TrEMBL record:
InterPro entries: ADH-like_C, ADH-like_N, ADH_Zn_CS, CAD-like, ER, GroES-like_sf, NAD(P)-bd_dom_sf. It holds the Pfam family ADH_N. It comes from Microvirga vignae. It comes from the Bacteria. Its cofactor is Zn(2+). Coiled coil: none annotated. Residues 17-346 form the Enoyl reductase (ER) domain. GO terms for molecular function: alcohol dehydrogenase (NADP+) activity; zinc ion binding. Keywords: Metal-binding, Oxidoreductase, Zinc. Belongs to the zinc-containing alcohol dehydrogenase family. This is Hydroxyacid dehydrogenase.
Length: 359
């Protein structure tokens, strides 16, 4: 059963400036510890757009994006013990890691000393083939990087937990957020809305920070206790020293200086959105308040499973808009205009086999 390669199909960006279009390709033959799954839903992350357009300068083409994957197991290799055909499963941003370094042994595969293998745009550790992501009908991943979707979690909405969810849950756990913690969230997009829901789910007091009061009703509806308008200098002064953790989800270059005085002693502002330069920062509020600025990527596999179980238990789900696969280019354009509340999810039932390979 394990000797053939899976013919599959999806959508790919053929080059940096091009629209995504139908693409036929193969998945690797099952290795003994591999799980093959049919993809049911794929979330649309900002990284997908950046990668498809080579915004970070690292992309290789064709790019099949997608690292928020929910599916159903269709076959397993002979050594797979954790999954069987029919199970509902998920795959996030990583598809492999070295499995033997200190970080991997601690369950922090995202910090693997040899670099983790990204679900798309990475290189398979054995064949050196480029990995392709979830904008496709099938995927093959080793069982150590496959997550179980708990019963009761809505499959059609769960996909964004695999990137937006774990990216915001991991810092909440790293900094020990729980009942009574004071958490700020800057930015109310795909990441920010999950940060609000998850922090509230952990029992924290949650404040959304925004330049205008426009998002107050949305913030409260998502579970925040209040909205702090960052351009209101009086309100900002009154909020000084009031936060244990601020999760900064803003995806572009911005100024941290207004937010640093909001942190209490030993408080941390953690950056999870912007990949690249920030505006110049003053060390004064850091020194005087023993405050910290940190970064955090996704979380490890065990923590991602913990997140899925937590969300099933608490009935926490991303706010999503379901689209068809052939609406992806329009979805990218809308995402660039921040015209999405709060995450697009592709229903893979809408993806049909192309008459001929177009790439
Ligand atoms: Zn992502
Ligand atoms: Zn490792």
């Amino acid at each position: 059963m394990a000797s053939f390669r899976y013919k599959t199909f999806g959508y790919a960006a053929p080059s940096a400036g091009a629209r995504l279009q139908p693409f036929s390709f193969e998945r690797r033959a099952l290795r003994p510890n591999d799980v093959a799954m049919e993809i049911l839903y794929a979330g649309v992350c900002h990284s997908d757009l950046h990668w498809a357009r080579n915004d970070w300068g690292w992309s290789n083409y064709p790019v099949v994006p997608g690292h928020e994957i929910v599916g159903r197991v269709i076959a397993v290799g002979p050594e797979v013990t954790r999954f069987k055909a029919g199970d509902h499963v998920a795959v996030g941003c990583m598809a492999d890691s070295c499995q033997h370094c200190d970080q991997c042994r601690k369950g922090e595969e995202q910090l693997c000393r040899e670099g983790n293998t990204m679900t798309y745009g990475g290189l398979d550790r054995i064949t050196q083939e480029m990995t392709h992501g979830g904008y496709s009908k099938h995927v093959v991943v080793r069982q150590e990087f496959v997550l179980r979707v708990p019963d009761g979690l809505d499959l059609s909405r769960a996909a964004p937990l695999l990137c937006a969810g774990i990216t915001t849950y991991s810092p909440l756990r790293t900094w020990g957020i729980g009942p009574g913690s004071r958490v700020g969230v800057i930015g109310l997009g795909g990441l920010g809305h999950m940060a609000v829901k998850l922090a509230a789910g952990l029992g924290a007091q949650v404040t959304v920070m925004s330049r205008t009061p426009d998002k107050k009703a949305d913030a409260l509806a998502l579970g925040a206790d209040r909205l702090l308008v960052s351009t209101d200098l009086d309100a900002m002064a009154q909020a000084a020293n009031g936060f244990d953790l601020i999760i900064d989800t803003v995806p572009n270059k911005h100024d941290l200086n207004p937010y640093l005085p909001l942190l209490d002693v030993d408080g941390t502002l953690v950056i999870v959105g912007q990949v690249g330069p920030l505006d110049e920062m003053s060390s004064v509020p850091l020194l005087l308040g023993r405050r910290r600025v940190a970064g955090s990527p996704i979380g490890g596999i065990a923590q991602t499973q913990e997140l899925l179980d937590f969300c099933a238990r608490k009935n926490i789900l991303p706010e999503t808009e379901t689209i068809r696969m052939d609406e992806i280019n329009e979805a990218f354009e809308r995402m660039e205009r921040s015209d999405v509340r709060y995450r697009f999810v592709i229903d893979m039932a809408s993806l049909t086999e192309p008459a001929e390979a177009t790439l």
